[in-house]
Amino acid sequence: MGIFINGVGLISPGYTQENELIRVEDDRLFCAEPDYSKFIDVKAIRRMSRIIKMGVTSSMLSLKGSGIDKPDAIIVGTALGCLEDTVSFLNKLVLNKEELLNPTAFIHSTHNTISSQIALNLKCMGYNSTYVHRNLSFESALIDAMLLFDESAIGTALVGGIDELCSESYQILKRLGYYTGTDSQLIQAGEGSAFFNLSNESSPGSLAEIKAVECVSFAGLDAVEERARKLLQLFNVDSPDLILSGNVNRDNDSSLLMDLYSNFTSSERVCEFKRFCGEYPTASSFAVHLGADILAKQSIPKEAGIYLQSETKLKNILIHNNYKNVHHSLILLSAC
């Protein structure tokens, strides 16, 4: 069964506070952060790290205007968790020679701190889970929500994908080749927080429907193509109106991926979404926001570089994210 997106909250380098898609030319893309004091009590802000503020605020934005104060479930996907708190704790560990350590940074560094803080803020005592599955963390959170909806265990869910970028993690990942693309060109590093107010019922304000989520790991592009074809056939989709691709031109993957997409649609209907948000493990959450925004408005932002005839009805968007052709995910969005 599909689930409906009834609200979104996004803090990202790729969108302005006016919800306009932008592209920033830099090696590191940091979020355009709002004035958190408009969403969180000033006294509480002092005790929150940056990623916690991003998560709490974007979750509140997704619930705004929906009439839902407490979702039945809070499910978060994050690959790296609270990096700045982790770095702070490890630095103090070295400087103090493992003695007289303040445990606060360590307590705040655990991955489930984000979902826990959101639950405390919303006074939500329901189902709460965090998925830490590398580049499939957000997809795992979505699948969990869909299973709960399918079992009629919940009626609403707050699902998000979030990861932050800090100087220390950037230098380490850069050294390990995470941001190295074709011909040694640097891939833009990114971060972001995207939360979705989901329900098993549509409403007049529904933005889009999430039809299905599929994950493919340790398999070639042939297996990805076969899975994508079966997914589209299952929902009687001959060809998606748009493909949002997570391609970042790594290891000469671009030509292989374009060959893959050509089996489903023309190259003019492929948009590489990481040009706007940068490369980070849960970037597919940004793509879901972008896709839902396009389907709700029935228009593609000019910054995306996709030009279709004005009368074209946008019905289905296929999101494909991958990391080094090892972990692939497919998310099918449809207009309500």
Descriptive notes:
It is built from 11 helices and 10 strands. The protein is α/β, with parallel strands linked by helices and 336 residues long. It folds into 2 domains: 3-199, Peroxisomal Thiolase, Chain A, domain 1, CATH 3.40.47.10; 208-334, Peroxisomal Thiolase, Chain A, domain 1 (3-Layer(aba) Sandwich). The protein has a 10-stranded mixed β-sheet, sandwiched between helices.
What's a quick, concise take on this entry?
This protein is an alpha/beta fold and 336 residues long.
Instruction: Characterize the quaternary organization of these chains.
Output: single chain
Distance between the termini: 14 Å
| Structural class designation | alpha/beta
Estimate the strand proportion: 15-25%
CATH class of the largest domain: Alpha Beta
Helical content (DSSP H or I, runs of 4+): 25-40%
Low-confidence stretches: none
Number of domains: 2
Secondary structure tally, helices: 11
The averaged pLDDT comes out at 92
Taking all Cα atoms into account, the compactness measure Rg is 19 Å
What are the key terms here?
336 residues; alpha/beta; Peroxisomal Thiolase, Chain A, domain 1; ten-stranded mixed sheet; 10 strands; 33% helix; globular
Q: How are the elements arranged and paired?
A:
Layout: E1 3-11, H1 42-45, H2 50-63, E2 73-77, H3 83-95, H4 104-109, H5 113-122, E3 127-131, H6 137-150, E4 156-163, H7 167-175, E5 192-199, E6 208-217, H8 221-234, E7 242-245, H9 253-261, E8 270-272, H10 274-277, H11 284-297, E9 316-323, E10 327-334
Helix pairs in contact: 2-5
